[in-house]
């Protein structure tokens, strides 16, 4: 995609053309020349822009679900949104995160491989403080987790997997399991260093504490479901035909739906003055002739013509014709 020029750059370009500093023919010739772009094979882009957009949509939904989950669990104001989605080598991702942090490793059953959720210590310890009855302030602690801290955080992040499953449900039925919690990324080697991973950064605010929750999705984990991350697949899913069982259930629900059927005897118009003077025994003349059929409405729409009568001891109408506009 071509770079978009600002208004100042456009004005400068027009000024250069008008003063002769720049030749329009040279610009046209340069435009037609082949442009070479450097490509780093160590940073192979294995995900298309379409797939990155699909992953962004999925995790925007995940961030909304996480906001609701953490707000309920921590009983405080929590706000989470997708800050960025990038693809880069695993080695570069590991180098970019703090030396001591909270690393949750998940197994995305039935997919192969493992997924990593890195939680910035500021956020992790603020969550821990809230769960222990504190105000949610972060603790300046860079150390291995105690057994109690590990237990509490494991239980908390295990419950976040329900939101992760729900966010991915439109693509794959997943039952992720928390495999391990680490604090030092150097001891964690999930995939080869040059493996391409998608890194989703979730900007997180808990009360007055802010930080990042980062999700690392290796290519090998998503490889078998990559076709499902295209717009073509999403459109096919939307057009998918219902099964015979679903069709029968839908028909049964439609047939069992209640409708209001009304027979209108006629209408009339009177003034407010006449209405205020109405009393017992007064007669209101309708515009409908007794020789004309009644209009039968279904759900407020005119559908049939009918004639009034009696069925045993109750008033009734008999359908005599179907209105043409009803067929349409």
Automatic annotation (TrEMBL):
Compartments where located: Bacterial flagellum basal body; Cell membrane
Q: Which GO terms describe its cellular component?
A: bacterial-type flagellum basal body; plasma membrane
Annotated signal peptide: none
What SUPFAM superfamilies has UniProt attached to this entry? CheC-like (SSF103039), Surface presentation of antigens (SPOA) (SSF101801)
Where in the numbering of this chain does the Flagellar motor switch protein FliN-like C-terminal domain appear? 253-323
User: Source organism's superkingdom?
Assistant: Bacteria
Q: Which GO terms describe its biological process?
A: bacterial-type flagellum-dependent swarming motility; positive chemotaxis
What is the first-listed, main subcellular location in coarse terms?
Answer: other
One MF term in GO for this entry? cytoskeletal motor activity
What Pfam families does its record include?
A: FliM, FliMN_C
What keywords tag this UniProt record? Bacterial flagellum, Cell membrane, Cell projection, Chemotaxis, Cilium, Flagellar rotation, Flagellum, Membrane
What is this entry's stated membrane topology?
Answer: Peripheral membrane protein
Q: List the InterPro entries hit by this protein, alphabetically.
A: CheC-like_sf, Flag_FliM, FliN-like_C, SpoA-like_sf
NCBIfam families in the record, alphabetically? fliM_switch
Q: Would you identify the family this protein belongs to, as annotated? A: Belongs to the FliM family.
> What name is this protein filed under?
Flagellar motor switch protein FliM
């Amino acid at each position: 995609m071509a770079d978009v020029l600002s208004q100042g750059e456009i004005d400068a370009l027009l000024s250069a053309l008008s003063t002769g500093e720049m030749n329009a023919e040279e610009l046209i010739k340069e435009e037609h020349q082949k442009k070479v772009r450097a490509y780093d094979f160590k940073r192979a882009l294995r995900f298309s822009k379409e797939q990155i957009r699909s992953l962004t949509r999925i995790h925007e939904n995940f961030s909304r679900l996480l906001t609701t989950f953490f707000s309920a669990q921590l009983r405080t104001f929590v706000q989470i949104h997708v800050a960025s989605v990038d693809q880069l080598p695993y080695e570069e991702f590991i180098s970019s995160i703090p030396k001591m942090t909270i690393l949750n490793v998940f197994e995305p059953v039935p997919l192969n491989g493992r997924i990593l959720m890195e939680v910035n210590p500021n956020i992790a310890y603020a969550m821990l403080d809230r769960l222990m009855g504190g105000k949610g302030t972060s603790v300046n602690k860079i150390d291995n987790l105690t057994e109690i801290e590990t237990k509490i955080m494991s239980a908390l992040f295990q419950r976040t997997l329900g939101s992760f499953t729900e966010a991915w449900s439109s693509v794959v039925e997943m039952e992720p399991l928390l495999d391990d919690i680490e604090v030092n990324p150097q001891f964690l080697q999930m995939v080869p260093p040059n493996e391409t991973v998608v890194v989703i950064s979730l900007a997180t605010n808990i009360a007055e504490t802010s930080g990042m929750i980062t999700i690392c999705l290796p290519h090998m984990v998503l490889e078998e479901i990559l076709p499902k991350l295209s717009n073509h697949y999403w459109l096919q899913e939307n057009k998918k035909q219902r099964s015979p069982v679903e069709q029968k259930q839908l028909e049964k629900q439609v047939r069992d739906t209640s409708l209001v059927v009304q027979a209108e005897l006629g209408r009339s118009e009177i003034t407010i003055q006449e209405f205020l003077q109405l009393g017992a025994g007064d007669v209101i003349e309708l515009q409908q002739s007794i020789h004309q059929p009644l209009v039968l409405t279904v759900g407020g729409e005119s559908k049939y013509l009918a004639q009034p009568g009696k069925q045993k001891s109750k008033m009734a109408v008999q359908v005599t014709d179907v209105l043409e506009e009803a067929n349409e």
